Amino acid sequence: MYLEMKVKGLAVDPLSNLPILILRDEEDKRSLPIWVGLAEANAIAIELEKIPTARPMTHDLIKSILESLRARVLKVVVTDLRDNTFFAVLHLQLGGNEITVDSRPSDAIAVAVTVDVPIFVAEDILDEVGHLASQGVMEVTLLGQNVNAYRGELPGGEAADFALLLAQVSKVEGLERIRYTTSHPLEFTQRLIDAYARLPKLVSQLHLPVQSGSDRVLAAMKRNYTAMEYRSIVRRLRAVRPQVSLSTDFIVGFPGETEADFEATMKLVEDVRFDGAFSFIYSSRPGTPAAALADATPHAVKLERLQRLQARVQEIAHEYACAMVGARERVLVEGPSRKDANELAARTENNRIVNFAGPAALAGRYVEVEITHAYPHSLRGRWVGITVSTQPGSTVLQEPA
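Now predict its structure.
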């Protein structure tokens, strides 16, 4: 069953301080919050005559496509909710036919508000949202492309950068850990580094893509920072949080990359000692500036470089994992283990999975485990007890009966 709903305004998520679009049914009895991007929120706000803005609006792309096709929007249907992500369908009239187009709901609703068409939501989505809202949340991840470039306002009108946003999120009662991804070195400010000294809820794990250790390649990629500046971020971050675990991204074989460029990347790996990396061979994308660059490096050479890089990163990561053996870790139990449904899988603060034997009732709780073995892609542990937070950065261990 689908309910017709109307846009009733914009609110602010108290956890992330990001915009929420509020939909309500015609009888004003049921509501649906949909988390939207800043651009989509601004687009909707303009239509609601809430606030002026000059920011670019991603839904303009959809509008321009519709106009070029001379398609008429009939309605928007929010169809599904999976893994906390909404899905929507635009129903269009094209000539004498009705067609559907999948879309992000934030884009679809921005279009719907602009052209004033009805919005429908599956009733079971409303039930699921209500169910989720009634559950306690102990760990959150703030998501965004270059999430640390966030700029916004607090309810009182105070300008907020990402460091201040993290400080506000850390005040949420009951919340015990804060993660975020993905960040950009160019936006990794001293204020954000200082947040690691002040906010114990901010986990000691960070994914900070670097892409290359060669200044020449970084310039060709238009990354707008140098390898030395990246090293400076790491040095200052580890000065306030020595135990922080760092992972990154690498692109190998960017057009024109020389052996010296690649060795600079390997030198960065040794200097920083990353605890993991996503690494790939460069793949040309039509229409991008890099697609026009000369690339004489054979694929076999690129592959050999990638394998060397991955092997060394994996060695370092395994050294970190082995150093955890014998230590006690506070972990969040995520549910049954993938390897053995009779065991549990939990996540450590440095984002490793540890499998251990324990009662299923521990799912969703923080427990303490002793790390007993380090494998290439996971840890093995022994359940010690349940941990209860008494104040930020302080916990009490309750041993199993």
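Confidence is low (pLDDT under 50) at residues 49-61, 128-133.
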